[in-house]
Amino acid sequence: MNTRINPDDTEVKDLNIIRLKKGETVEMSKALGSSKRLEILRHIIREELNLSQIAEKVQSTPQAVHHHLKILLDSQLVRVVREETIKNMKKTIKFYKANYNPDGINLISWDPFNDMASSDLKSRIPIQEKPVERIVRKMAKNFFKDVTEPKIEILTSIVKHLVDLSHETMDSLYEDYKLELDDKLWNLILLFTNLSVINAIKKLVETEDYKKDVENLLALLYEEISEI
Length: 228
Description:
Blueprint: E1 2-4, E2 13-14, H1 24-31, H2 35-46, E3 49-50, H3 51-57, H4 62-74, E4 78-85, E5 92-98, E6 100-101, H5 104-110, H6 118-123, H7 129-139, H8 149-176, H9 183-206, H10 208-227
Parallel strand pairs: 2-6
Antiparallel strand pairs: 1-4, 3-5, 4-5
Helix pairs in contact: 3-4, 7-8, 7-9, 8-9, 9-10
């Protein structure tokens, strides 16, 4: 017997845009402080898998995966979506699915710094284009009346440029003021700077008071281009 626990259309959320309550951040950071758990999450973002299937994909034992799943379940990063009862056996097989998508934007802030080389940190900054595109897709309907792929591409490019420029500006300040900061701490500061730019743009396109200013700016730019 197949018992569906959660609907199929439950949206997988992005960790970079959720709001965590006090205490949840600690639980999530603990849960994500393992490369094996991150690997498990990446597999069950794509499809519903049972314990044995997950163990096979991550090349681990069912006992070890069970331990990791318990931590992920307790931190609400994972949910049980359905259960299958095997005929003639008093056994129920659970299938798991990720609640959150641990993309490249977030991983730097959750991985244990002691296990990460400075070069690894730097390789994740500036933010890659794919996570930016996902965020743009979420807010595009608030920006465009008719959302098309070319518009998504243009807006993604603009947001990415702004993030990269903020990164370059911060690096320039770092050099100008000769700041003596640990590389890992500095990269964490850069990460939050980049995320703040993305969140600022998100607010610009989602908040009515700001949307009018954005529309006015676009209208002025259109006039300038038309006159060329």
